[in-house]
Amino acid sequence: MGDLQAEETGVAHHRLNPGGRQPFAHRHDQAEEVNVVLSGSGRVKLDDEIVDLQTLDALRVAPGVTRCFEAGADGLEFIVFGPHRKGDGEIIQGWWS
User: Fold this and answer.
1) What is the Cα–Cα distance from 39 to 60, expressed in whole angstroms?
2) b/e burial code for range 40-71 (CB count within 10 A of at least 16 → b)
3) Domain extent listing, the chain
4) Predicted structure pTM score
5) Long-range contact list for 60-65, CB < 8 A, 24+ apart?
6) Each residue of 33-83: pLDDT tens digit?
7) 9-93, superfamily in CATH?
């Protein structure tokens, strides 16, 4: 399968090893994202709230919300859908430590 030729929608595939956590958090000023867990389990920190995740959970992340994902004992695989807006994103190192 080739390029989808989508002009505004982005899709990203993430896979975290068992017990692994993303090395940084991020947030968008304008973009809303939908995350769908394909396999495994884990947690996501959304600002000050921690939410448990399992296979086939779908999670909406509103603009302005800082997020970072952490895998459970069986790893975590998920897809993220959202608009691609150049310059709309901030990476935050060491946010969930």
Assistant:
1) 17
2) bbbbbbbeeeeeebeeeeebebeeeebbbbbb
3) 9-93
4) 0.90
5) 60/32, 60/33, 60/34, 61/32, 61/33, 61/34, 61/35, 62/32, 63/28, 63/29, 63/30, 63/31, 63/32, 64/27, 64/28, 64/29, 65/27
6) 999 999 999 999 999 999 999 999 999 999 999 999 999 999 999 999 999
7) Jelly Rolls (2.60.120.10)
